[in-house]
Write a structure and sequence with these properties.
The complex is a heterodimer of chains A (923) and B (112). With 923 residues, chain A is mostly helical. Chain A is 72% helix and 2% strand. Chain A has 4 domains: 1-168 and 227-263, no CATH class; 265-523, no CATH class; 593-670, no CATH class; 725-766 and 778-923, no CATH class. In chain A, strand 5 and strand 6 form a beta hairpin. The two termini of chain A are 68 Å apart. Chain B has one domain (2-102): Orthogonal Bundle (Helix Hairpins). The chains are: A mainly alpha (923), B mainly alpha (112). At the A-B interface, helix 27, helix 28, helix 29, helix 30 and helix 31 of A face helix 1, helix 2 and helix 3 of B.
Chain lengths: 923, 112
């Protein structure tokens, strides 16, 4: 459970800022830091076991049938990343507390940050790759929020969108790749996949899966040609850049490469794709960094370059290279996070990040200068700092790799990185100080302490690599490669060629490059460079246009068009299904036909066709539709469904009443405007779909069910389990009571919606006057009708009560009873008018709906008292002469709730329309 | 019997769809009612046809009660849906002054 708890802690922390922000930024920061620190401590508690070579796992079944389980694992690689995510995360929280202006929505920032932290932690702790995908997408989303935090700036919005579009698209590709991988490996848990190297690499799906997974990893880790989003993401607040682009987000892609290294690496495909992507990214980005003037832009391209370096090492596919990669992940995170923070400090102190406007800050900001020197020199790979060690290891690996272009390019990239690092340091802190608007000075400890801690690590790891980081690198490299690794990292290997010579060449070359900088810069500025943003925008514009055209073509807001397109698709899919699968012959004997049903169904079809043909005469069409409904209810009775017959006939009556009321307002006829072509098209479509549905129905009826229907259980248990003879009613109020519970709530909501719409209609000006006010209807409330309906009402109620009480054993029940009551009441409305009926109404219909839902809920909750799940029914038989035996079932109480809700809903809807129909004053 | 019911379902579906493709609210609502009948009947017959076999526990045989329970609630819910559509159609007519469902046709046709 512990690992799941660790993964959950940042998410829990994300909830707190909303509550703690009123106590000030300090408390809010401390609270979220508490969650990160707790997660860190819980991780550290597992360190001894991991050092001993164990892998900690937690398994929680989520959807085991789909292979999706909340399985977590903590091994050396996950440990390294978890420490970076949580450790640097803590420093970022402190830094952000002092960095962000008091006017910023700080609580929101912390929430986003913690969401991101949780998502990252989830990625590295996931054992199930489907779970990993969920967290992966969450990092894309939460980083979108973080990068676009200053949403008032167009650059922030554009940068955030670019990052989301790029990493999101890669994520989609990766989903496909990982699904293939899991399919080949026979499971979605890393513990399964990592053992299936031979099967995976032999599979024909290996190359497609590899390409798709690499697409995901390369977009996330900003590898060429997907690097463009990272520099644009610099529009984020500096703490975000420091976190996302040093230790976390961009390292997620590398993590994935390292995680799947044992099963994917070692093939020519892997070697060539990953190595060349890494090498190109490393040298190209280092070159660009040399010509950038914005501090953060230099760091951004430097990050891209270092990510390329690590990708390159992972691509080599050897144990030693993987070890170097893991070590550089650690080193890069320490010095790059510090550098981003320092760039933010300089920005704060001087209000500019353009190094052409900076200089000479060594005197004004000595602390920052010292820290920046350490971090920058480490980035450049100068001894005795940690960046030197990992770069040395990289050069060593490159030197042993053929063809010759690889070591040359690696040295060249190292040369460029020395050059841009020195330029970064020299232009900012050395030289003459320009005239600053405000005298710059070092910030408070809150800002410089976090980078100072990182700088201390940079020095400590550089001086004592084995003591400080050896254990972690060993554990992580062992987990990455799947074999025990014992790295030997030493500051001074002696005059060991060739890495040392390459390193020296890089430093020498860098000095030459810096000497020639003005000439190179002029050439760079004059050269034509492709603008990634313009290309991205053009691509996005094209996509948007195509998507819009497609959407407009299929669905332009016209209901008929959308409906027609949908029908065509259904038709095509149905046809495809029919043609692509064998049709089994019908085995079920046809039912004997008799005279009555032929007449009835003949009448039904005639009425339906007549309603369609005469639909312009609306009243006539409505009556014909009513005839269809009535015959249908008779058919239900004939086809052994008495409950349906009762329900259909009562619903039919209220529906027709409702539509008549509506027709009172609407035009009585439909104008003849439709073109002949459209009629033909619609008619053809209707006949085609009707034919298909008829064929499907016939096929269904003449075949036995593939599996025995579950209703055998309902039939068998209706009497002993639910205490009712009527199996349909016991299903509704007992077996599937939860469904019914939902349905009466939906019905109640529909009625309330109608009420609300009526209220708003009554309050607005109408564009047309309904033409019912002409006064030619004769006597609105004839006495005969009034008298008759008064007599009918008590009888209807009696019938309703009867149907309700017997519903559990014979056709009837709450639905039907409610409808019968409603009909009795509606008759009063028709005969005597809404005013008369409303004046005599004691209970508002809303209350009736509410009471119905409450009674049903109380019945459900009541079963908790008996220690059983929601809506478990209980019953006993009652005997009260002269009545027949009846059930005293809790289900009957539930049915009462159904009854009240149905009655209330139907009456509320009809009453609303009736209120509209009243002649309105002042319209 | 099966043939007859299948044809009836097909006819109801076709009529319902044709009406739902009309451009005015009232025929669309009528079409939806017809389509609901067809769908309810279709779900109902998925329990297959059995005469004189109401699922009231006595001596049997019984037809499948589950589709009946589904259709029963579906009938009531479709009343709620029809009612909401009717009030929406009414509201649109009273405030917009016409009962066309597609605003794109507005310029093609004359104002009432």
């Amino acid at each position: 459970m512990s690992l799941a708890l660790i993964a959950a802690l940042p998410f829990l922390g994300a909830l707190t800022p909303a509550l703690t922000q009123r106590f000030g930024r300090g408390i809010a920061t401390a609270t979220v830091a508490l969650f990160s620190a707790a997660a860190l401590l819980l991780i550290l508690q597992h360190v001894p076991a991991i050092m001993a070579g164990q892998t900690i796992t937690t398994q929680i079944n989520w959807l085991p049938t789909l292979g999706l389980n909340a399985n977590f694992r903590l091994d050396g690689l996950a440990l390294l990343f978890a420490l970076l995510i949580l450790g640097i995360g803590l420093l970022i929280q402190i830094y952000a507390r002092f960095y962000l202006d008091t006017s910023e929505p700080y609580a929101r920032f912390l929430t986003y940050l913690m969401l991101f932290q949780g998502a990252m932690l989830g990625i590295v702790l996931s054992d199930n790759i489907l779970l990993l995908l969920v967290f992966w997408e969450m990092t894309s989303l939460s980083s979108f929020l973080l990068i676009g935090f200053w949403s008032h700036l167009p650059k922030a919005r554009q940068g955030a969108r670019m990052a989301l579009a790029t990493t999101g698209a890669g994520g989609l590709a990766m989903i496909a790749g990982l699904l293939m991988l899991g399919h080949v490996a026979g499971g979605y848990d890393l513990s399964t996949i990592l053992g299936e190297r031979a099967a995976i690499q032999a599979s024909p799906l290996y190359v497609p899966a590899l390409l798709l997974i690499l697409l995901g990893a390369f977009t996330k880790s900003a590898q060429f040609p997907f690097h463009y989003w990272l520099p644009h993401a610099m529009a984020a607040p500096t703490p975000v850049s420091a976190y996302l682009h040093s230790a976390t987000m961009v390292k997620a892609g590398l993590f994935l490469l390292a995680r799947l290294w044992p099963v994917l690496a070692g093939t020519p495909e892997w070697f060539w794709i990953v190595t060349s992507a890494g090498l190109i990214t490393m040298s190209f980005a280092a070159g660009v960094a040399l010509f950038k003037d914005d501090l953060k832009a230099i760091l951004a391209y430097s990050t891209v370059s270092h990510l390329g370096l690590i990708t390159f090492l992972l691509g080599l596919g050897t144990k030693a290279a993987a070890t170097a990669a893991v070590f550089h992940i650690l080193c890069h995170a320490t010095f790059k996070a510090a550098l981003f923070m320092l760039a933010g400090i300089v920005d704060h102190a001087t209000h500019t990040r353009d190094i052409r406007a900076l200089g000479g800050l060594r005197r004004a900001m000595p602390i920052s200068f010292a820290l920046a020197s350490i971090a920058t020199l480490s980035m450049a790979g100068i001894p005795p700092l940690n960046g030197f060690l990992s770069k040395e290891m990289m050069l060593e690996e490159a030197a042993h790799t053929a063809p010759w272009v690889i070591p040359v390019l690696a040295t060249f990239a190292a040369l460029l990185s020395v050059a841009y690092a020195l330029r970064f340091l020299v232009y900012t802190f050395l030289g003459q100080a320009p005239a600053y608007a405000h005298a710059p000075h070092d910030p408070g400890a809150g800002l410089w302490l976090p980078p100072a801690i990182l700088a201390a690590l940079v020095v400590a790891i550089g001086l004592a690599p084995m003591a400080m980081a050896g254990w972690l690198v060993d554990a992580a490299a062992s987990a990455t490669t799947g074999e025990a690794v014992h790295a030997h990292i030493a500051l001074w290997h002696g005059l060991q060629p060739p890495a040392l010579w390459m390193s020296l060449a890089a430093v020498g070359g860098a000095l030459v490059v810096l000497g020639l900088y003005p000439a190179l810069r002029a050439a760079w500025d004059g050269a034509h460079k492709p603008d990634a943003k313009a290309m991205f925008d053009a691509g996005m514009g094209w996509l948007t246009k195509t998507a819009t055209a497609l959407t407009q073509g299929l669905h332009n807001g016209s209901l008929s068009r959308g409906f027609a397109v949908g029908l065509c698709s259904f038709l095509a899919l149905g046809l495809y299904a029919y043609l692509s699968a064998p049709t089994l012959p019908g085995t079920r004997a046809l039912t004997q036909i008799s005279f009555a049903p032929v007449v009835a169904f003949g009448l039904l079809m005639t009425a339906a066709l007549a309603a369609t043909a005469l639909h312009r005469k609306r009243l006539l069409a409505l009556l014909l539709t009513g005839i269809v409904g009535l015959i249908l209810s008779a058919s239900f009775a004939y086809l052994s469904a008495p409950d349906l017959a009762l329900t259909q006939i009562t619903v039919e009556v209220v529906t027709i009443a409702l539509m008549l009321l509506a027709l009172n307002f609407l035009p009585k006829t439909t104008p003849r405007k439709t073109a002949g072509f459209r009629k033909l098209r619609d008619g053809g479509l209707a006949v085609a779909v009707g034919t298909g549905v008829a064929a499907l129905a016939y096929t269904l009826m003449t075949r036995e069910a593939m599996f025995p229907p579950i209703s055998a259980f309902h039939l068998a248990q209706s009497l002993p389990g639910a205490g009712g003879h009527n199996a349909v009613n016991t299903i509704i109020v007992d077996f599937r009571g939860y469904d019914t519970y939902g349905e009466i709530i939906v019905l109640g909501i529909a009625a309330l919606l109608i009420f609300a719409l009526t209220e708003s209609l009554l309050g607005t000006r109408w564009a047309v006057q309904p033409d019912h006010a002409a006064g030619d209807e004769g006597d609105a409330h004839p006495v005969m009708l009034q008298t008759a309906t008064r007599l009918i009402l008590p009888m209807a109620m009696l019938v309703g009560v009867y149907l309700f009480l017997r519903g559990h054993n014979e056709p009837g029940g709450g639905f039907v009873a409610g409808l019968v009551f409603a009909i009795g009441l509606v008759l009063q409305y028709i005969a005597s008018g809404q005013d008369w009926a409303a004046a005599r109404r004691r209970i508002p219909y809303h209350a009736m709906i509410g009471a119905g839902v409450l009674v049903a809920s109380a019945t459900g909750i009541g079963s908790f008292l008996a220690g059983r799940p929601f809506l478990t029914s209980n019953f006993t038989h009652g005997h009260l002469p002269p009545l027949k035996d009846f059930e005293l079932a809790t289900a009957a109480l539930f049915d009462l709730g159904v009854f009240l809700c149905v009655l209330g809903a139907v009456m509320l809807a009809l009453d609303a329309l009736a209120r509209l129909a009243k002649p309105q004053e002042g319209r | 019997m099966e043939v007859l019911i299948a044809i009836a379902i097909g006819t109801l579906t076709a009529c319902g769809i044709y009406l739902m493709l009309r451009a005015r609210t009232f025929p669309v609502i009528l079409g939806l009612s017809l389509l609901s009948y067809a769908v309810n009947l279709f779900i109902f017959i998925s329990g297959r046809i059995r005469l004189d076999a109401a699922p009231i526990i006595a001596d049997g045989p019984y037809t499948d009660p589950l589709p009946q329970a589904l259709v029963l609630t579906a009938i009531v819910i479709s009343f709620g849906m029809t009612a909401v559509l009717v009030i929406m159609a009414l509201g649109a007519y009273l405030t917009a002054g016409h009962d066309r469902i597609d605003t794109e046709d507005q310029h093609a046709e004359d104002q009432p």
